[in-house]
Amino acid sequence: MMALNYAYPLYRPPSEANSLIFQVTLGCSFNQCSFCDMYRNKEYVERPWDEVKSEIDIMVKQLPDTKRIFLADGDALNLQTDYMVKIVEYLYKNFPNLERVSCYAMPMNLLKKSPTELKKMNESGLQMLYLGIESGSDIILKKVTKGATAQTIIRACKKAMDAGYILSCMVILGLGGRTYSKEHSKSTAEIINAITPHYVGALTLYLENGIKDEFLTKFKEPFIPVSDNEVLEELKDLISRIDVKDEIIFRANHGSNAYTIGGTFPHDKNAILEKISWMRDHPEIVRPKGLRGF
Questions:
Q1: Which of 54, 72, 159, 161 has its Cα between 20 and 30 A from that of 130?
Q2: Domains and CATH numbers, the chain
């Protein structure tokens, strides 16, 4: 079987582990977040139709029963609307069992699209977006050069949900260090309450050697990393402040986390808090640091 010639590194959300991936863009058009080195070795490129179509045609012959497709790299939503629609419609035309197409989204890309454009892409079959909130604190967002504020993130997310998208958001535990831990958990809960996305995933800050110096420099003050126990306290404070009526499926099972936990808000909230208290008393279940990664 012929494999796609991916331009590595290649990333996708954990829930897309079994999805077929097409790189319709390479890299990230922003590429300045100090906590992320996923695409630092790539120049942002939008791949031409002939290349994308050729790869789709190849994989249709090899994996005709594909049900889920993820469009990489980190910035597929930056494509012109008509080009994205062309890609997505071609996918559904050629994969008869296709159920879902998804991609990453940045707040700035959602805000650049009109409601009509977002709706057009959604109706063509782009159903799910993964967006990094990271933190609800404007102080922290500025320190990690996210390129967005809490209000622009809220506006972007609501715009996506109004257009019909399933929205999965990521937050990063420990992103403000010990100094801003309370600020981080409080403000992040507030932004989750304001958006009420369909899914929320919690990661834990993990500074790779290639990005660590940049992160510490941009932070502009001493950064004190939180311990595993302090991450649990931050998570507990975050969970205790989430107050929503609509369902949110919550997961903290990413490979960067010391502990694994999950549930569905609002009805699992107390059970999650109880589990966190139990985990705090059972450090033997912690994931070894050598097995963690962002």
A1: 54
A2: 14-285 (3.20.20.70)
Planar angle of CA 286, 181, 32, nearest 5 degrees: 95
Share the mean pLDDT of the chain.
94
Write the DSSP assignment of 17-75 as a string of letters: TTSEEEESEES-SS---TT--TTTTS--EEPPHHHHHHHHHHHHHH-TT--EEEEESTT
Q: Give which of 58, 148, 43 is closest to 105, Cα–Cα.
A: 148
Distance (Å, rounded) from C-alpha 79 to C-alpha 214? Answer: 28
Q: How confident is the model at residue 277 (pLDDT cuts 50, 70, 90)?
A: very high
Give the separation between CA 117 and CA 162, rounded to whole angstroms: 12
Residue 273: pLDDT over 80 = yes
Contacts of 23 (CB under 8 A, 6+ apart): 4, 6, 7, 10, 47, 71, 72, 73
DSSP for 215-270, written as a single string:
HHHHH-S---PPPHHHHHHHHHHHHHH---SS-EEEEE--TT-SS-EEEEETTTHH
The answer to whether the beta carbons of residues 274 and 263 sit under 8 Å apart is no
- For residue 191, what are its two tokens? 């932004």
